[in-house]
């Protein structure tokens, strides 16, 4: 109803906080964080990734140890949640899902936000969210991760394989979705083909195509 009312009044009278949000699901080693920041800046939206979400969790009095699980990736992160042992991964995925629901539920209703991280796209109304998934060839992701972290190419490949496996497990058990199912997204962007601002441009055009207008704060 809010979106319908905005269309009747015209976008020049729209409040940024009422605009549909953008979620970006990424893979380890891709350019998701940089793309998320660029899209948020271009739209004039707030930006949320793992670090900022953890800060939000503290404001919501969520347990900070639990909030460190928000990227939902490695077993080491899982062990940091419940100590050195992981007695039940199913229980852990439920805790993780509850944390994401709590935080996304606090951010998304205000609108005008870009949320980078796993699971957010599955929690929001698909009609009022632009759901983006980023992909890149495995070799490219490993090379970029190795360069960024100062590790060997072989080590980067092993790390990404482990991370992808854990990410898929979490998405299946926490949200009941396959991590790579394109049916859960509005647009899938290959960051090898579309890098940097070209990828951001695709997301902006997808936003316009889905919702029929950009917010008045947009910077093209």
Description:
The protein is of the alpha/beta class and 220 residues long. The chain has one domain: Rossmann fold. 53% of the residues lie in helices and 10% in strands. The protein has a 5-stranded parallel β-sheet. α2 crosses α10 and α8 crosses α9. It is globular and about 45 Å long.
* Assembly level: single chain
Identify the strand order in the major beta sheet. 2-3-1-4-5
Tally of extended strands? 5
Largest sheet features = 5 strands, parallel
Helix content: 40-55%
CATH homologous superfamily descriptor: P-loop containing nucleotide triphosphate hydrolases
As residue ranges, the low-confidence spans are: 1-16, 60-87
Secondary-structure class: alpha/beta
Classify the beta-strand content into a percent band. Answer: 5-15%
Give me the CATH architecture, please. 3-Layer(aba) Sandwich
- The shape is globular
The overall pLDDT, averaged over residues, is 74
Round the Cα radius of gyration to an integer and report it.
18 Å
- Structural domain count: 1
Distance between the termini: 28 Å
With helices defined by DSSP (H or I, 4 residues minimum), what is the helix count? 10
Element-by-element helix/strand order: HEHEHHHHEHEHHEH
């Amino acid at each position: 109803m809010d979106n319908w009312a905005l269309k009747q009044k015209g976008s020049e009278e729209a409040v940024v906080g009422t605009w549909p949000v953008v979620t970006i699901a990424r893979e380890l080693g891709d350019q998701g964080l940089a793309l998320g920041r660029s899209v948020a800046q271009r739209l004039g939206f707030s930006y949320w990734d793992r670090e900022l979400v953890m800060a939000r969790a503290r404001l919501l009095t969520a347990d900070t140890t639990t909030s460190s699980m928000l990227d939902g990736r490695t077993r080491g992160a899982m062990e940091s949640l419940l100590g050195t042992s992981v007695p039940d991964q199913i229980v852990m995925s439920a805790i993780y899902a509850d944390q994401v629901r709590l935080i996304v539920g606090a951010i998304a209703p205000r609108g005008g936000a870009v949320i980078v991280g796993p699971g957010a796209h599955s929690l929001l109304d698909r009609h009022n969210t632009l759901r983006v998934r980023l992909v890149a060839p495995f070799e490219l992701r490993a090379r970029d991760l190795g360069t960024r972290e100062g590790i060997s190419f072989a080590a980067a490949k092993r790390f990404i394989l482990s991370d992808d496996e854990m990410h898929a497990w979490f998405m299946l058990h926490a949200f009941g979705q396959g991590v790579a199912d394109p049916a859960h997204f509005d647009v899938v962007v290959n960051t090898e083909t579309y890098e940097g601002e070209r990828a951001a441009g695709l997301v902006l055009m997808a936003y316009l195509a889905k919702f029929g207008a950009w917010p008045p704060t947009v910077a093209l």
